[in-house]
Amino acid sequence: MAPVLRTWINFGAMQAGWFACVLGAAHAAAWAGPPVALGIVLLHLALSRQRGAELALAAIALCLGLAWETIAQATGWISYNADGAIAPWWIFTMWPMFAITLNVSMRFLHGRWLAAALLGAIGAPLSYLAGARLGALQMPDRNAAIALHAAGWAVLMPLLVFLAPRISREWQR
After folding, report:
1. Which candidate, 83, 54, 22, places its Cα nearest to that of 164?
2. Rounded to whole angstroms, how far apart are CA atoms 110 and 92?
3. Is the pLDDT of residue 151 over 70?
4. Residues 35, 71, 133, 7: is their CA dihedral positive or negative?
C-alpha cells in the first residue's frame, strides 16, 4: 500500500473510531464504540509489519489512558455518562486506537517534541470539548478541565511520540 494512502486510511480510521465511541456513549449505546475501536486496532495489527511493537505501544497507551482518564474522573474535572470509580470502557478503547497513529499518520511528530507538546495541549482539550458538546461527557468546570487536559497532554503526547519509534526499533533487534 502506498505510504500516503496508508497515512490517510490510518487517520480516517482513527476518526471513525473516535466518532463511534463518542456518539455511542452520547446516545446510550456506549457498548457500540469499543468493538469498532478494537476492530480498527486489530486491522492495523494485521496489516503491520511490526505487530509486536505496535501491540506493545497500544498496551502502553492503554495503561496510560487507564491512569489518566481515572484521574480526570476521580478529580471531578470530567464526568462520563457511566457509573463507576474508573472511566468507562469506551474511553479506554480510544487510547490503543490513538496509539496506532503514532508510527503512521502522526509519524511526522517523531523527534519534534515541541510540536508534539503543542498538538497535545491544543488537540486533546478540543477533542474532550467536542465529546462534551456531543453529549458523551460533562465538564463541571470547563476551564479547569481544559487546563488539566492541556497540561497533561503537553506531557503525554511527547512521551508517546518518544516511545513509538523506540519500541519499534527495540522490537527489530
Report:
1. 54
2. 24
3. yes
4. negative
Q: Please give the pLDDT value at position 123.
A: 97
DSSP letters, the chain, are --HHHHHHHHHHHHHHHHHHHHHHHHTT-TTTHHHHHHHHHHHHHHH-S-HHHHHHHHHHHHHHHHHHHHHHHHTTS-EESS-SSS--HHHHHHHHHHHTTTTTTTGGGTT-HHHHHHHHHHHHHHHHHHHHHHTSEE-TTHHHHHHHHHHHHHHHHHHHHHHHHHHHHHHH-
What are the pLDDT digits (tens) for 89-100? 999 999 999 999
- pTM of the model as a whole: 0.92
